[in-house]
Every structure is written in C-alpha cells, then in structure tokens.
Amino acid sequence: MKYLIAFILHFMISSYTVAQTADYDSVYLINNCVELDATGSVQEDRKDLVYQWTFGEGILKYGVKVNHCYSYLGTYEVVLSVIDPQINALFQKEWTCQVEVTENYHLSIDISKDVDKSITASSILSCPSTSGQSDFFWDYGDGTYDVGKEVIHKYPRAGSYSVRLLAQVIHQNDTINLVQTTTLSIQDDEI
C-alpha cells in the first residue's frame, strides 16, 4: 500500500498552541487539546478513504480533521489508521506520534484602580515549574504601551479600553506566547 505511506508523509499537525488568539503559535497544547488535520494528504482520486484516529485513551474518532482533549497529564500515542472501502481493508498505524500533556500555561490580568485615579495592572502567569525567563508586554488600548510584570498607567480621558497583555515565556529553548485581553471602563470622575 505504497500510496498510503506516501500521502501520510505529508500529514501535518495543524495546531499545538498555547496562544489564546491566532496571533501567536508554538508547539504546546492549549487546554490539553490537539487538532489533527490530514487534509493535505487526501488524494483527489481517493476521497473515499476513511481516517480512523486513536488517542491513547481508548477513544476512536473518524475524519480527515479531528479534535481531541485529554483528561489527564501524561504521554499518549496518537495513531492514524486508514480504511479502504474499495477493498474492505484496514491499514493500521499508517502514522503515529507521541503527544505529551503537561501542566498548562495560564495567563490572567489583575487590574485595580489606585487612589490617584490611575490603574495598576498585574500579570498572573502560572506555568510548569521548569519554565525559564518571562517577559510581559502591555497594550493599554489608548495608543500607549509598556513592559513589565506589574505596571501603572493613567488614562488621558474617559472611555472603554481594551487592555492586551502578551507574555513571552522561554521554555526548553522554545518561545511560548500567551495573550490575554480584558476591557476596562474609565469614568469621567476617575481621571
């Protein structure tokens, strides 16, 4: 079944990501979920093939593109088998990979209003204990920016502002980008 092996080589894992928006990609899972996409391997003359996925938890899913969320930390073997209905055959383990589900990264923003009507914004990053350096970049939503784990900012006028925080974490020679956004309302009496 050489044509199956040839097209499996073009298989791609489309999103191992921790980014909470599509702006940033890395090689880690978000919320212990993975999306597998073999659409690049589908041959025009063989769209009748059935793709069967196992995820190391006793769960079967079918389709060219599938999503799966893991319930527990651990290492799992993902297996793609292909069913050929023309000859009624199952080609097992056409493609395999190991997925390691580890502690998740989580980023949140804590904003408080200070006595002088400015705000103090703090980043809260929880991540595996083996993480390295972390940098924090703030977009206040009013055209100004800042860097730091905790920052102070005074808004020039009342309004609704979208505060965006990007955290860059260096972990085992990889850069992981996490994004968190929150909306802040500043009233006239707070300026």
TrEMBL record:
Keyword Glycoprotein annotated: no
Protein's UniProt name: PKD domain-containing protein
Segment forming the signal sequence: 1-19
InterPro entries hit by this protein: Ig-like_fold (IPR013783), PKD/Chitinase_dom (IPR022409), PKD_dom (IPR000601), PKD_dom_sf (IPR035986)
Upper lineage: Bacteria, Pseudomonadati, Bacteroidota, Cytophagia, Cytophagales
Domain PKD: 48-84, 129-167
Keywords for the protein's UniProt record, in alphabetical order: Signal
Ranges in coiled-coil conformation: none
Family annotation (CDD domains): PKD
Entry-linked PROSITE patterns: PKD
Species this chain originates from: Reichenbachiella carrageenanivorans
Keyword Cell division: no
